Amino acid sequence: MLYRRFGRTNLQMPVFSCGGMRYQYKWQDVPDREIPADNQANLEATVRRAFDLGIHHIETARGYGSSEQQLGKILPALPRERLIAQTKISPKENPKEFLQIFERSLSLLKLDYVDLLGIHGVNTDQHLEWSKGCLDVVRRLQAQGKVRFVGFSTHGSTETIVRAIETNQFDYVNLHWYYINQQNWAAIAAAQRHDMGIFIISPSNKGGNLFAPPQRLVDLCAPLSPLVFNDLFCLSHPPVQTLSIGASCPTDFDEHLKTLPLLDRADEILPPILKRLEDAAIARLGKDWYFNWQTGLPTIDETPGRLNLSAVLWLRNLAIAYDLVDYAKMRYNLLGQADHWFPGARIDQIDLDLLRPCLNNSPFADKILEVLRETHKLLGGEAVKRLSQQ
C-alpha cells in the first residue's frame, strides 16, 4: 500500500480507503438479531482484508443504516494504533441534537474516540451555517479526547464547498472529483491552500459505475480497465490523498490494487488514454459543443422550475460520448428525488418554453431546447431513489 500525508492532520493515509456504505445489511437501524450471520461475516472479512492490504482507514456514517453497529463488532478487535476510524453526522440546526447523534455513533462503533469526524452533507449555505454550531460541539469533543480531527463531506456546488473551506475550520474534506466530473478542482485547490486532507468520494460508482463499464469505455481506456484508469487519473494529481473504495466484499479491492505499481509511470500511461477519450467525445459531440457547452448556462436557482441544466447536459454528453447510458439514466432519474444531495428537476417536470429567456448567454441558445427534448427521450424513465431511501 502507498500512503500520503492527509493534510494538516499529519495522518499517513492509505491512497485507498475502505468506505462503509455497500457492505452493511440495511439502510435503516435494525436490531442486532435481525442481521444475518453471513452478512456480518462478509463485512468483517472485507474489513480484515482491507487491513491486511494496509487500508486501515475505515469510513462510515450515521446515515448508513446498520453500518456503524456492524462495524462495532469488528473495529474494537483491530489494532487501535493503526486504525483510522471515520464517521459522519449531518449538520443540525440544534447543536444538542448533533451531540446526541455523535454519542450514539460512538456507542455503536464501540470506540473511545474517532480519528476523523465529518459533518455529513454540507451541500447548501444553510448547512454551512448550521455547521458553525456543530463545530462548537466538536471542539468540546476534541477537548474530551473523543474526536481527533474534523472535516466535512459534500455534494454541494463548488462555490459552497469553497466557502466552507475558506472558513478554515475544517481539517479535511470529502468531495467528488474524478475523470468524468472535474468541476470541483477549484475546491481541491482551495483545500490544498489550507493544508486540508482531500478524500475523493465514490470515484468508481459516481464516477461512472465503473464496476460494470460499457464496452466503448473499456476499449477507450485500454490497456487499463476504466476503474484502474480512473484511479490512476485521480491519484496522479498530488493534492488527492485518498480514494474511497465502497467495497461490498473482500475481492472488491483487487482491481484497484492494480493501480499502485502504475503510479510512478502515470505521466507515460495516461496521456494517450486521455487523448483517445477526448477525441472520441469530440467525434460524437462536436468540437464546439465539447469545449463550450457549459458557457453561459443558468444556475438551478436561475432556472424556472429549478431544472438542473448543467447536470442534465453533462449526463447527456456522457451517454453519447462514452455509451454511459445506464449510468446517465440512473443519475437523471434521481433528479427530483434526492433533495439537496442531487438537486433539480427533470426535463419533463418543467415548461421548457419558460427556459428560453435564461439561455441568452449560451452560444447554443438556439439548440438547447431541442437537445433537452432529445435528452429526456434518451434518459427518461422511472424515478430513482437514493440508496438510503430504498
Automatic annotation (TrEMBL):
Gene3D superfamilies: NADP-dependent oxidoreductase domain
Highest taxon, organism lineage: Bacteria
Domain NADP-dependent oxidoreductase: 39-203
CDD domains referenced in this protein's UniProt entry, alphabetically: AKR_Fe-S_oxidoreductase (cd19096)
Gene Ontology MF annotations: oxidoreductase activity
Pfam families cross-referenced by the UniProt entry: Aldo_ket_red
Name recorded for this polypeptide: Aldo/keto reductase
Organism lineage: Bacteria, Bacillati, Cyanobacteriota, Cyanophyceae, Leptolyngbyales
